[in-house]
Amino acid sequence: MKLSQLFNEIKVLEDVSTFSKHEQLVQGIINALNQKILVRGDILPSVNQMIKEIGFARETISRAYKELVNRGIIESKNRKGYFVATEDTEQHLRVCLLLYAFDTFQETFYQSFRNKIGENIQLDIFFHHNNFSVFESTINNIKGKYGMYVIAPIDVPEAIPLVEQFPMNKLLIVDRKLDLNEEHSYIVQEFKQSSYNAFVELADRIKEFDQFVFFFKQQSAEPNDVLDSFQRFIKDYKVNGIIKNKYESGSIESNKVYFTIHNLELWEILKDSKLKGLKPGKDLGILSHNDDNVKEIIFDGITTFSIDFEKMGEMAAEFVLSRKPIKHIMKNKLIRRNSL
């Protein structure tokens, strides 16, 4: 009964002269949803069934189904066909956003992205926490279900074939660059030279202290390019530098510069400096990566080097809305404040 009613909704639009066959099929399915002929979870006729019942070309039917998938109204399930994903026929696009985690700077990116794409777009957000197993299972779960994909990948060779499963015109890589085999769009950070430039700009200030301590954890989400830049800097500028795996609570000492990428470590360092009565910028130096509003305020300001995550979010949203290919590399810039 449902299928015959659906076919009737499509056929009745034959008399609408402004509709192409592709538009007739899309609008017929939307009308069936609006009239509750179809509801969420219902399976749609296969392409072959559609050809038999309404006589449209296979390419026309496939294109109409793809448009409805892009809008998030239906979804494709491997070997099971097309299903109704939502009864909200007003939405124009369904977007998947896959990020590392919801840290403060990534929240800035998300809010900027969300505000820019508008209300008529369904946005689903996922996190992989730099865990490859989580990343892989998430990729396998989301493919074929969205009209656009914005992905912050794990920068390992194993991630490349996973990401290459997506149509390149529907994919945007953000944050870390991946060397994909096909042409793709990206808005990513440049770490190596811009990190080195930040250290060089701070060189005279760093040399006022006895030691430059960098907390860097191998096999983490931290970019190795920053580590390479640190090592190059302390060699080129003859700075007494040391790399430690992590900050040990209570180990803070005066006359040292502490540099961390992780916010949790930064908060611990600031807490210990307060407990020991050490003033950042005077008794010790503190440098952080990835700026946010809190770092501008606390302890009279924390010196950082960072990209503009709000701008990255806006640019990513512009790609989703326009689908205009983009290849953009954002350089980290030094933001000097009182801590160093």
TrEMBL record:
Taxonomic source organism: Pedobacter hiemivivus
Classification via PANTHER family: GNTR-FAMILY TRANSCRIPTIONAL REGULATOR, HTH-TYPE TRANSCRIPTIONAL REPRESSOR YTRA
Record domain HTH gntR-type: where: 19-87
Keywords noted in UniProt: DNA-binding, Transcription, Transcription regulation
GO molecular function, one term: DNA-binding transcription factor activity
InterPro entries named in the record: Peripla_BP_I, Tscrpt_reg_HTH_GntR, WH-like_DNA-bd_sf, WH_DNA-bd_sf
Pfam family for this entry, one: GntR
Protein name in UniProt: GntR family transcriptional regulator
UniProt-listed Gene3D superfamilies: 3.40.50.2300, Winged helix-like DNA-binding domain superfamily/Winged helix DNA-binding domain
